[in-house]
Q: What sequence folds into this?
């Protein structure tokens, strides 16, 4: 009996695990069936082109996963692998060709780029109508001004929003959200999306003073920093929903053996003892990011054919 109570007590104090893998699988099935319908009804196959430069091992893994998921969804999937020393002129010429390729509806240039390439020039060369990563200034402007009808929303924050919605619903009125990190890829668009759903939003970063005190006020925490286990359990307001975007590769010793392990920005077990719900790493935000890219590409194809209006 005592054992049962102890087990029950643990279960009661545990936050629910927001299963990004399961949510992504469900969404992916939806994208696959809508893709099949698009082909049957309109003879249209969404096309995704992924451009990768250099040898960054993490980028290679991300690109492989994106290609595999695109194919599984029934997309036309193309990968362009460019040498580390490719000239900016050649990258821009390729983007220009893809912008004008009728079979390609989404273009993604995997970041980071080698140092000699200008990330802004390259990402801004992608046509806003094919910018399925949502990094073009046109799409950023639409998101920031709340005109998201035909905008592409960056995939990671879009996936985070679905996970938050699952627990708190669409309307976040009265909720205080704290975003940790102010990058253009995650932190800033995340803040715009939360604001659009009526949350009161605080964006924090490396120059924020007394970060734990700010986070303690939050009903929703989104951590996008890149520092393993930075957000501790005692930073969390009881009942908060915590989304961990961070992906950190750390070295651990298991049975006397040195291994690499992926971990997020939150100290997951500590946070789960206080929060209402939290995302794990791996298996949280990562899989959602990939499937949101597929959803954006399907939408780009539909928009290109006038099958969806703004
Ligand atoms: P970034 O390096 O561009 O930005 C990090 C942000 O963290 C900066 O705004 C910085 O001010 C802030 N920061 C740094 N130290 C801090 C501190 N001590 N306290 C508070 N804020 C601090 O990184 P990014 O591209 O936004 O990515 C963040 C993390 O998310 C990384 O681990 C990245 O790998 C991961 N990521 C995951 C996915 C996914 O699909 N799961 C997608 C994108 C990024």
A:
């Amino acid at each position: 009996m005592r054992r049962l109570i102890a087990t029950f007590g643990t279960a009661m104090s545990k936050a629910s695990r927001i299963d990004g893998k399961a949510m992504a699988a469900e969404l992916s099935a939806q994208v696959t069936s809508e893709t099949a319908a698009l082909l049957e009804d309109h003879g249209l196959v969404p096309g995704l082109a992924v451009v990768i430069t250099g040898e960054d091992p993490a980028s290679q893994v991300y690109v492989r996963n994106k290609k595999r998921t695109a194919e599984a969804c029934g997309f036309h999937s193309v990968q362009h692998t460019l040498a580390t020393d490719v000239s900016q002129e050649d990258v821009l010429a390729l983007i220009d060709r893809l912008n004008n390729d009728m079979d390609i509806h989404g273009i993604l240039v995997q970041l980071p780029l080698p140092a000699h390439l200008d990330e802004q020039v390259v990402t801004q060369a992608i046509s806003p109508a094919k910018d399925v990563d949502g990094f073009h200034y046109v799409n950023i402007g639409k998101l920031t001004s709340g005109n998201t009808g035909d905008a592409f929303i960056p995939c990671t924050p879009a996936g985070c929003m679905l996970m938050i919605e699952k627990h708190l619903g669409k309307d976040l009125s009265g909720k205080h959200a704290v975003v940790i990190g102010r990058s253009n890829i995650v932190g800033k668009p995340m803040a715009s999306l939360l604001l659009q759903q009526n949350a009161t939003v605080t964006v924090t970063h490396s120059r924020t003073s007394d970060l734990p005190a700010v986070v303690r006020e939050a009903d929703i925490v989104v951590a996008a920093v890149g520092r393993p286990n930075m957000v501790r359990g005692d930073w969390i307001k009881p009942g908060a929903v915590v989304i961990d975007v961070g992906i950190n590769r750390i070295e651990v010793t298991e049975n006397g053996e040195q291994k690499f392990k992926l971990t997020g920005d939150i100290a997951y077990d500590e946070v789960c003892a206080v929060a209402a719900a939290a995302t794990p790493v791996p298996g949280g935000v990562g899989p959602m990011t990939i499937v949101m890219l597929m959803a954006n590409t399907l939408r780009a194809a539909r928009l290109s054919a006038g099958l969806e209006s703004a």
About this structure: The radius of gyration is 20 Å. Residues 43-130 form a domain with the Rossmann fold fold (CATH 3.40.50.10860). Residues 156, 180-183, 185-187, 204-206, 208, 211, 224-227, 245-248, 285-286, 289 surround nicotinamide-adenine-dinucleotide (CB under 6 Å).
